[in-house]
Specification:
heterodimer; A: alpha+beta; Immunoglobulin-like; Cytochrome Bc1 Complex, Chain D, domain 2; 5-stranded mixed β-sheet; about 40% helix; elongated; B: mainly alpha; two-stranded antiparallel sheet; 17 helices; about 65% helix; globular
C-alpha cells in the first residue's frame, strides 16, 4: 500500500505499468516543447507590448510588413516538431494496442454501475487482482451503455462499447493498490462506478492464492447469496439498509411484503417475484421506480443455484440482526456468517489451502485452452501479432 | 462661425436617423429587416444564454468544492452539466460571434446597406429564438441528463426529454445554416467595387470560412439528431446495439459535425483578434494572405479530424493513426495566425486599451489551449488523458479563453459603433484583468487534475483531488465577478456613456467611416474603399472627434453623387 505512493509526482499518479515510463517521459517532452513556445510567444508579446506602446514622443511605423522567409520559418519548424510528436505518439500507441503472446486473460463486464471481472479459473469478482510483471489482457464488454476502463496508475484506458468486444492489455510493474475509474459518462452513478483501492497488484503467488479463494463460493445459501450480491453488481444499486435508496429499492425487509407495481398491480415479494425481477427486471417494476435507470437482465448470467442463493439471502434480510451485520462497514464477513449460523463449518484452513494448490497446478498463468478459442473469435488483431 | 450650425444640423440628422431610434415601437424591432437590429437582438439573446449557462457553471464549481454530494445529488449534477454544456455550445458559442457581431459587421464592413437576404436573416433569428425556447423548455421541464453529446445508447435509453431536445438542436441548426448561407452570398456578391478578395478585412475572411463550415457541416448534425430521435421512438437500429445498431457509428456522425463546429466557434474569434491586433497596434496586419489562407485551411482540415474524439472508442488502429496525423495538420494554420498577430505589433504603436487587452489575453490563453492540444493529438498521451479534466481544461482554454475572450474583446471594440456610447476604460481593464486571472486560476489546476487521472463528468470524486478542485472553484468565482464587471461596464456605458465619435480607435475598415451608431441606411454615399489596414492617412483629433482622415484615402471608385436616402 505504501509502495503505491512512492512514484507519485506533481503531474502523475504512481508509475505502475510498463506504459508509464514512456507515456510520462513523452508527456514531459511535449511539456518542454510547449513551455519553450509558450515562453517565446508570451515573451515576445510582453516585449512588444512595452517596447511599442503608445507614449508621448514615440512614433511607430505603420507600414505594411510582410516577410516570406519568416512565414516559411514559422510554418516549417512547427511542422517538423508536430511530425515528431505524432511519430512518438504512434510508437507508444502501438505498444498499447499490441499485447504480447503470453497474457493472462480476464473478462470484464461493465454495467450501470459496477465492474465485474471473470478470471481464467472461472472466479468472478468485483475487484481486479493481477500479478506483478505479467502481461494481462482484458476482454471487455458492456451490457448497457458506454463505459470506459481507466486505471491512471497503469496509464491504460479503453472504452467498453455495448454490442462490441474491446480489448486492452497492460503489464503491472509495481505491487500496490490502485484506483479504477469509469471515464465514459454512463448516467446517475457514473462517478461512483469506480473501484477505490480496488485494483490489486500482488506477487504471482498471492494472486494465485486469491484466485483459488475467489473461485470458491460459500456453501451456505445465505452466505452464498451475500457473496453474489457483493460481486455480481447488485450492491451498486440496491442497499442493504432499510429505506436507503441508491438507484433501485433496498433489499432490507422486502421479503414476504406485498407491494404495488408501477402498473398498480399488487404482488408479493416472494421466490417467484425475486426470480422474475432478476431475469426480467422490467416485468413488474415497483411503484416509484419506473423512472429509475433500468436494470439489465441477468438471464443466462446466473445459474439456478445462484438464483436460489440470492433468494435465501433476501429472505434472511428480514431479520434485524442480520441486516445490522450486513449493513456495517465490512459487510458480511466469514466470522459474521459463522456467528449467525450461516457459515460453512466445514470450511477449514486445510481445504482452502488444498484448493489453492490445486488451482496453482492448473492455472499456469497463461491463457488456458478454453479461453484461447474465444480469444481468437473476439480479437483477431491480437492473435495476428503473436 | 458658419460651421457650427452646419455641424449641429448634421448631428441632429445623425441623431434622428441612427438605426437605434429611427423607428420606434416593439414591432419596429420584432419585424425589422435591419441587420444591425437583428445583430443587437442576437447579442442580447446570446448574452442571456451565456448568463444562464454561466450561472450553471458556478453551481457546478460550487458542488465540486467537496468530494461528496454537497447540495446536489448525482442526478441533479448530471442534468446541470448537461444544461451548461448544451446551452453554452448550441445557444451561446456557435451563434455568438457570427450571428451577433457578424450580423452587425458583415454588411457595414462591405459598405453595403444590408445582408443579401434580409428576410432570411430575420427568419434565422426567430428560428434561433424558437429553437432556444424549445430546447430550454425541454431541458428544464424534465431534465436532460445525456451530456451535450447525446452519446448512444445512453441517450436512447434514459428517461430524459431527448427527443424534444434533439428537435431543439435541429431547429437551431437551421438558424445556423441560414446565417452561414446569407453571409456566403453577401460576401460573394456584395463586395463594393475595389474590394477584391484580398482587400477584404480579415474578419470577413474568418466569417466566410465559418459560413462554409456552417453550411456544409450543420446538415449532418440535423440528420444525426433526427436519426437519434428515430432510434429512440422507432428503434430503427442504427445506433442502439439492442436493435443491431452501433454506438460508435453515432460518435462518427456526431463528431463529423461537432468537430468542424469547434471551428465555427473559434474562427470568428480569430477574425476579431486579427482586426483588434491591427487597429490597436495602429499597424498594418502582418502576413495578411497567410492569415486569410489559414482561415480557409482550418475550415477544410477541420472536416477531417473528427476521429480524434474517439481514440479510445475501439476504432481500428490504422484509422486511429490517420486521424492523429490529420489532427496535427490543423495545428499549423493556428500557429501561423498566432505568429502573425505577434508580428503585427512589431514597431507598431500599441494602445493598451480594453479591447486590446482582451486581444492580448486571447493570444495568451489560446496559445495554452492550442499547445495542450499537442498532448491530446498524440496517441499515447491521449489514451491516458482522454475524458479526464485535462480535456476539460484544454477545450475551455480554446472555447472560453479563445472564443469568449475574443467575443468580449470584439464587443468592447465595436460597442461604440453599435451603441454610439463610449465605456469606462478603467473598469473595462479591471474586467479584463479579473477575467484573465479568474480564468487561469479555474482551468490551470484542471490540467494537473487530468494528468493525475481525474475523470470528467464526476459528481463525486476521490478526496486527493479536492485541493485542486477548490482552487479551480475559487478561480471560477473570480471569473464570474470579472464577467459581472464587464456587464456593469456596458450597462453603465448605455446609461452614462460619453458620445462616441465615428472612429474612436483609428480603424481603417469601412464600418468606422459611418457615424456611431450608424444610420439605418449605413452609408449615405458609397464609402471609399481603401486598404483595410492602412493607417497612414488617419490622425487622432480629440476625444470628441476621434480619428479622422487627414486627406481622403486613395480610392478605386469614382466619386459619385449621394443617392437620396430612402425609407
Amino acid at each position: 500500500m505504501l509502495l503505491a505512493d512512492v512514484n507519485e509526482t506533481f503531474w502523475f499518479p504512481p508509475k505502475a505499468s510498463t506504459f508509464a515510463q514512456e507515456t510520462d517521459s513523452f508527456f514531459m517532452a511535449i511539456m518542454w516543447i510547449s513551455t519553450f513556445f509558450f515562453v517565446l510567444i508570451v515573451g515576445v508579446m510582453l516585449y512588444f507590448m512595452t517596447q511599442y506602446r503608445r507614449r508621448p514622443g514615440y512614433r511607430g511605423d505603420s507600414r505594411a510588413l510582410h516577410n516570406n522567409a519568416l512565414e516559411i520559418t514559422w510554418t516549417v519548424i512547427p511542422t517538423i516538431i508536430v511530425i515528431w510528436i505524432f511519430a512518438r505518439g504512434v510508437y507508444g500507441y502501438m505498444d498499447m494496442v499490441r499485447p504480447p503472446a503470453e497474457t493472462i486473460d480476464i473478462n470484464v463486464t461493465a454495467r450501470k454501475w459496477d465492474w465485474s471481472f471473470q478470471y481464467p479459473n472461472g472466479a468472478i469478482s468485483d475487484t481486479l487482482h493481477v500479478p506483478v510483471n505479467k502481461a494481462v489482457r482484458l476482454r471487455m464488454r458492456s451490457v448497457d451503455v458506454l463505459h470506459s476502463f481507466f486505471v491512471p496508475a497503469f496509464r491504460a484506458k479503453t472504452d467498453l462499447v455495448p454490442g462490441r468486444v474491446t480489448t486492452m492489455w497492460f503489464e503491472p510493474i509495481q505491487e500496490g493498490i490502485y484506483d479504477l475509474f469509469c471515464t465514459e459518462y454512463c448516467g446517475d452513478q457514473h462517478s461512483e462506478m469506480i473501484k477505490r483501492q480496488g485494483v490489486f497488484v500482488t506477487s504471482y503467488d498471492e494472486y494465485e492464492q486469491w484466485l483459488a479463494e475467489a473461485a470458491k463460493p460459500p456453501t451456505h445459501p445465505v452466505a452464498h447469496g451475500y457473496w453474489l450480491y457483493a460481486r455480481r453488481g447488485c450492491k451498486s444499486c440496491h442497499s442493504v439498509e432499510p429505506d436507503r435508496r441508491i438507484v433501485g429499492p433496498s433489499f432490507a425487509k422486502s421479503y414476504g411484503e406485498s407491494l404495488t407495481t408501477s402498473t398498480g398491480e399488487s404482488v408479493v415479494f416472494d421466490e417467484n417475484y425475486i426470480r422474475e425481477s432478476i431475469l426480467n427486471p422490467q416485468a413488474k417494476a415497483r411503484e416509484g421506480y419506473q423512472n429509475a435507470s433500468q436494470m439489465p437482465s441477468y438471464q443466462g448470467q446466473l445459474t439456478e443455484d445462484e438464483l436460489m442463493a440470492i433468494t435465501a439471502f433476501l429472505q434472511a434480510m428480514k431479520q434485524d440482526d442480520f441486516i445490522s451485520v450486513v449493513a456495517d462497514e465490512d459487510g458480511l464477513t466469514k466470522e459474521d456468517a459463522i456467528s449467525l449460523g450461516f457459515g460453512d463449518e466445514e470450511d477449514s484452513a486445510e481445504t482452502a489451502e488444498a484448493g489453492a494448490q490445486e488451482e496453482t497446478a492448473e492455472g499456469d498463468g497463461t491463457r488456458p485452452e478454453s479461453e484461447e478459442a474465444s480469444g481468437e473469435a473476439t480479437s483477431p488483431d491480437a492473435e495476428q501479432d503473436q | 462661425m458658419s460651421a457650427v450650425p452646419a455641424d449641429s444640423a448634421r448631428a441632429q440628422q445623425e441623431e434622428r436617423e441612427n438605426f437605434l431610434v429611427f423607428s420606434k415601437g416593439f414591432l419596429s424591432w420584432a419585424l425589422t429587416l435591419d441587420h444591425k437590429r437583428i445583430g443587437l437582438m442576437y447579442l442580447i439573446g446570446v448574452m442571456s444564454a451565456f448568463f444562464l449557462a454561466g450561472i450553471l457553471a458556478l453551481l457546478i464549481r460550487l458542488e465540486l468544492m467537496t468530494p461528496t454530494n454537497t447540495y446536489m445529488n448525482n442526478q441533479t449534477y448530471n442534468q446541470i452539466f448537461t444544461l451548461h454544456g448544451a446551452i453554452m455550445v448550441f445557444l451561446f458559442i456557435i451563434p455568438s460571434v457570427p450571428a451577433a457581431l457578424g450580423n452587425f459587421l458583415v454588411p457595414i464592413m462591405l459598405g453595403a446597406k444590408d445582408v443579401a437576404f434580409p428576410r432570411l436573416n430575420l427568419c434565422s433569428f426567430y428560428l434561433w429564438v424558437s429553437g432556444a425556447i424549445f430546447f430550454l423548455a425541454a431541458m428544464f421541464y424534465t431534465g436532460l441528463d445525456t451530456g451535450w453529446t447525446f452519446y448512444t445508447p445512453y441517450s436512447t435509453t434514459t428517461q430524459g426529454p431527448v427527443v424534444a431536445a434533439t428537435l431543439g438542436v435541429f431547429i437551431l441548426g437551421f438558424s445556423s445554416i441560414f446565417t452561414g448561407l446569407n453571409f456566403i452570398v453577401t460576401i460573394n456578391t456584395m463586395r463594393p467595387p475595389g474590394m477584391s478578395w484580398f482587400k477584404m478585412p480579415l474578419f470577413l475572411w474568418a466569417t466566410y470560412a465559418t459560413s462554409i463550415i456552417q453550411v456544409l457541416a450543420t446538415p449532418v448534425l440535423g440528420i444525426t439528431v433526427l436519426l437519434l430521435a428515430a432510434e429512440r421512438l422507432m428503434h430503427i437500429g442504427i445506433f442502439d446495439p439492442e436493435y443491431n445498431g452501433d454506438p460508435v457509428t453515432y460518435q462518427h456522425f456526431f463528431w463529423f459535425y461537432s468537430h468542424p463546429a469547434v471551428y465555427i466557434m473559434i474562427l470568428p474569434g480569430m477574425g476579431i483578434i486579427s482586426e483588434l491586433m491591427s487597429v490597436h497596434s495602429h499597424k498594418s496586419i502582418f502576413g495578411y494572405r497567410f492569415i486569410a489562407y489559414s482561415s480557409i485551411a482550418i475550415a477544410l482540415f477541420g472536416f477531417l479530424v473528427w476521429g480524434h474524439h474517439m481514440f479510445t472508442s475501439g476504432m481500428a488502429d490504422v484509422t486511429t493513426i490517420i486521424f492523429s496525423a490529420l489532427t496535427f495538420t490543423v495545428s499549423i494554420p493556428s500557429a501561423i495566425k498566432v505568429f502573425n498577430w505577434l508580428a503585427t505589433m512589431y514597431k507598431g504603436t500599441v494602445q493598451l486599451n480594453t479591447p486590446m487587452l482582451y486581444a492580448l489575453s486571447f493570444i495568451f490563453l489560446f496559445t495554452i489551449g492550442g499547445l495542450t492540444g499537442l498532448w491530446l493529438g498524440a496517441l499515447s498521451t491521449d489514451r491516458v488523458l482522454h475524458d479526464t479534466y485535462f480535456v476539460v481544461a484544454h477545450f475551455h482554454y480554446v472555447m472560453v479563453g479563445g472564443t469568449l475572450v475574443g467575443f468580449l474583446g470584439g464587443v468592447f471594440h465595436w460597442w461604440p459603433k453599435m451603441t454610439g456610447k463610449m465605456f469606462s476604460e478603467l473598469w473595462g481593464k479591471v474586467s479584463c484583468a479579473l477575467v484573465f486571472i479568474g480564468f487561469n486560476l479555474t482551468f490551470l489546476p484542471q490540467f494537473v487534475l487530468g494528468s493525475r487521472g481525474m475523470p470528467r463528468r464526476y459528481a463525486q470524486y476521490v478526496p486527493e483531488f479536492q485541493e485542486l478542485h477548490v482552487i479551480s472553484s475559487i478561480g471560477a468565482f473570480i471569473l464570474g465577478i470579472g464577467l459581472f464587471v464587464a456587464l456593469g461596464v456596458v450597462i453603465h456605458s448605455l446609461m452614462r456613456g460619453r458620445k462616441a465619435p465615428p472612429n474612436p480607435w483609428g480603424g481603417a475598415t469601412l464600418e468606422w467611416q459611418c457615424s456611431s451608431p450608424p444610420p439605418y441606411y449605413n452609408f449615405a454615399t458609397p464609402p471609399r474603399v481603401n486598404d483595410p489596414y492602412d493607417y497612414t492617412p488617419l490622425e487622432y483629433r480629440d476625444a470628441e472627434r476621434g480619428w479622422e482622415y487627414v486627406h481622403p484615402p486613395t480610392t478605386d471608385t469614382p466619386a459619385t453623387e449621394p443617392e437620396p436616402a430612402r425609407t
